[in-house]
């Protein structure tokens, strides 16, 4: 039944359960507003729909252009055999006459020795280098120290502009990623079916690349179900998410921003839609900007269409 335009509404989830507005309070509010000569009607707020209707195995389809329907990752160790100095040499040019500005890592002048006070790399503290793609300048001493404090995977990310050199990888624990098409449409994408992604990561023990090596970590909320429209752009996002999964960039081990729990599996700066039929949490549809936003987040991790070509090579 439609309400009249301009009539105030009081949202009530149901008349027997919990609600944003207690049913008794809603009734009292309605009586008071009516007594004041104000029309009022009770409405039900939108319902949270996390999952699609049940789907049988026969209705699940593989995704055209993408082989298999599952990817597993195991614990990969950082590449060995090259020193940090040898790795950085590929991305740097030496600067004989440093500019009159600060090194943004140690905040000392580039014309003075590095101010880094941690474990000392095997590089002279007064040497200065320029990153070849973005042109930002730092103490070599500081860059080596930054590399040693990171994933040590042969890649480097400029601390000023975030330009990535080499192939960036993460520290995602071992797990499984499934992906397929289901015969239901997402809100705002009624013209196509839906790609469902299922992530599953079990709890385990942290490795040397994690915050607390040797300590156990938890994995809450798995399996996690995520959704993309089965459109051309949706399939493109999926292909790039597969690259991110293989590079261990989807998840990390850290502190949960929602529960405050430490040493647990968390999302790693690539947002996913986990709400199928509504958008009450902000993690659902419709969201006209989501696909473009997630493509930008993937690019910030060094994953673009060029990455798809690299993976084939």
TrEMBL record:
EC number assigned by the record: 2.3.2.27
Give the residues annotated as coiled coil.
Answer: none
Q: Could you tell me which InterPro entries the record lists for this protein?
A: Deltex_C, Deltex_C_sf, Deltex_fam, Znf-RING_euk, Znf_RING, Znf_RING/FYVE/PHD
Any one Gene Ontology cellular component term annotated for this protein: cytoplasm
For this protein, the record's Gene3D superfamilies field holds:
3.30.390.130, Zinc/RING finger domain, C3HC4 (zinc finger)
Q: Does the keyword Cytoplasm apply?
A: yes
**Compartments in which it is found:** Cytoplasm
Q: Which GO terms describe its molecular function?
A: ubiquitin protein ligase activity; zinc ion binding
Residue ranges occupied by any RING-type domain in the UniProt entry: 103-162
Q: Which family does it belong to?
A: Belongs to the Deltex family.
**Protein's name according to its UniProt entry:** E3 ubiquitin-protein ligase
């Amino acid at each position: 039944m439609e309400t009249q335009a301009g009539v105030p509404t009081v949202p009530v989830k149901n008349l027997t359960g919990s609600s944003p507005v207690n049913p008794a309070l809603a009734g009292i509010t309605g009586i008071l507003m009516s007594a004041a000569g104000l029309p009022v009607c009770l409405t039900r707020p939108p319902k949270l729909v996390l999952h699609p209707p049940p789907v049988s195995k026969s209705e699940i389809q593989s995704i055209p252009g993408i082989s298999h329907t599952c990817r597993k990752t195991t614990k990969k160790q950082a590449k060995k055999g090259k020193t940090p100095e040898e790795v950085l040499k590929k991305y740097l040019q030496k600067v004989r006459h440093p500019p009159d500005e600060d090194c943004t890592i140690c905040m000392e002048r580039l014309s003075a020795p590095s101010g880094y006070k941690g474990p000392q790399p095997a590089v002279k503290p007064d040497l200065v280098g320029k990153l070849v793609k973005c042109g930002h300048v730092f103490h070599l001493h500081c860059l080596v120290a930054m590399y040693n404090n990171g994933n040590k995977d042969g890649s480097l990310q400029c601390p000023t502009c975030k330009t990535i050199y080499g192939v960036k990888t993460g520290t995602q624990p071992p797990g499984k990623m499934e992906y397929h098409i289901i015969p239901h449409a997402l809100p705002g994408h009624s013209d196509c079916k839906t790609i469902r992604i299922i992530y599953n990561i079990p709890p385990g023990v942290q490795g040397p690349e994690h915050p607390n090596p040797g300590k156990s970590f938890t994995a809450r909320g798995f399996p996690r179900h995520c959704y993309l429209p089965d459109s051309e752009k949706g399939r493109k996002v999926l292909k790039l998410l597969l690259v991110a999964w293989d590079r261990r960039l989807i998840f990390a081990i850290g502190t949960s921003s929602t529960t405050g729990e430490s040493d647990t599996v968390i999302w790693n700066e690539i947002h996913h839609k986990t709400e199928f039929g509504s958008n009450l949490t902000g993690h659902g549809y419709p969201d006209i900007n989501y696909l473009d936003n997630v493509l930008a987040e993937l690019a910030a991790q060094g994953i673009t269409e060029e990455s798809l070509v690299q993976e084939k090579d």
